[in-house]
Hints:
mainly alpha; 2 strands
Amino acid sequence: MDPIAVEVEGVGHVGYHVPTLVLGRGAIAQLTYTGDDADAPEIKKLIDAVAGNEDDFDNWTALITKVSELEGGVTRNSSPAAIDIFRAANDLFLTKFPRLYVYWAKYANVEFSIGGTETAEMVWERAVSAVPANPELWAQYCQFKETTCHNVPVTRELYERGAAIVGLDFWSDKFWDPYLDFEKRFGNASTVTRLQARISALWLYAYRRYYDAFVQTAIHSRDLDELLSPVELAENQRIVMSKYEALPEPTDIELDREMRAQISRYYAELGHKCHLEVTKRWSFEEKIKRQWFEVSEVPEEELVNWRKYLQFEEIEGDFKRIVYLYERCLTICASYDEFWLRYARWMTAMGKEEDVRNIYRTACTIYVPIGRPTVRLNWARFEESVGNLDTARDIHLSILEALPTNIETMVSLAGQLRRDQGIAAAVSWLERCKSTVSHGDAGRLIAEQARIHWQGAGDVEAARQVFKKNRLSFCNSAAFAINYLRFEMKQPRNNEAHDHIREVHDLLREMGALPVHLLKYLSHEYMEYLLDCGGKDAMKEYIELDKQVNGPYSVQTGLKRKVAEDGDVQTTDRRLVASNGHPGVEVNEAEFRRGVDPYARYYTEQGQDPANQGLI
């Protein structure tokens, strides 16, 4: 959840100690228990534990268990304080972890014992909204409705809602079985037959059980209009009647016999099709060991399987099946940005703007922590792409409200400002941001200002001036240094360009306080430039630089000059001789006696592998 607390419609119950339940990170701190003094200290301790680390699942479950057991188990006869704390804790818990369908079912069942049918149904509705792709949860909700509601059409309508959502699930026999039982108890033979016919065409793991029961009992005994939909019935009648075009018109008995034979052939083909489709999907389904959301990481082999399964259905091309598989995947993998992004991108390709928006909204307001801004930034770019510039800006600003030093978001908003308002607005925004971040990150923002001038406006000289103006202050910023050198290396090849590159490289080596391994990296990039683009004297410079960068410490005069107080190589050599007895590598006698090779340490500090030097 975003750290900005939000009020959720339809969540509150009359009698809460907190009159308006506000949900979101930090909201648990508002929770208090005013009941039995014997339980109050423990509950406060559990609340404090959750508030101290809201991502710790065990702390939450300990709190939920405790509030559920108050006064021997919360019921309608419990004190108002116990009921309030039970409801509030569950609301906060299931806002934090909304995919936990088992806890939704527990909450609804206890709520039924507290407030009766109406309040329990509110919880069930929230449950199937939070975990829509769960046949078992829908079955439990429908069975609750069946038990508490004596209006058969109303209950049937709920079953149909569930069927429209989870009916395609590979394991939806958990839903279809209670639906069939319901129709057998409260419907009639006709509705049962129609439901059996409908299920027999679905690609379920248990398809054969439904198929055999339907074919063996219904095809030769039930009315034809119960066996097929009107469209299917008309098509099969056309096939049968085409046989009699050159023959006398059949009697009613002959026509009935022919029609049932044709329907048998039709369902035989349908059964064969089901078998093939179920077999194709079984290779993916058998690898899905986790069927519901857990806070622990999904095993990598299952993530790989989900990627392959989604790709398979995308290639198959059935829109409803693809959407449902994404929903099912995200029931299990809700914590993984990649699947939210994949779903949104696929839906974008389908041209469903509002569906894309709903995917991003669901991901960002419930499942993806704001500490991982990638999905939110993609949402902002999507909104910008459809012309909602204010919404895109607000998404950026909401991230920065929670993560005020997030460089990626600052740069992304600068890009939007450049596209919408021009170069000056983007550069001005980054200038304001510089004062809010560390020195190293400010160097990155300066490099971004230069990049906007260069690539956004095509003004190379303006970009160069931005770098030059800040080079002495930020030459020890890794992002600034890398971008400065690369900027000059990407300019058109000529002698003047080479002079600019050499100037930047020498500045970074002599004036910057960058780590040795980064200096080596930058020098190697420059050396590659000399090999690929240098003139006739380039190899002299290359060999000298190779000695300074890759040679033994004793010949790295540039580094020795840099660390000397007076800039003299001899000064560094004299200091090393005085302290170590030789001018090469600094040796710690205690470490040497323990067997630590000083040369191995030297090569490690230089960013090299001691093993490649024959020392290990």
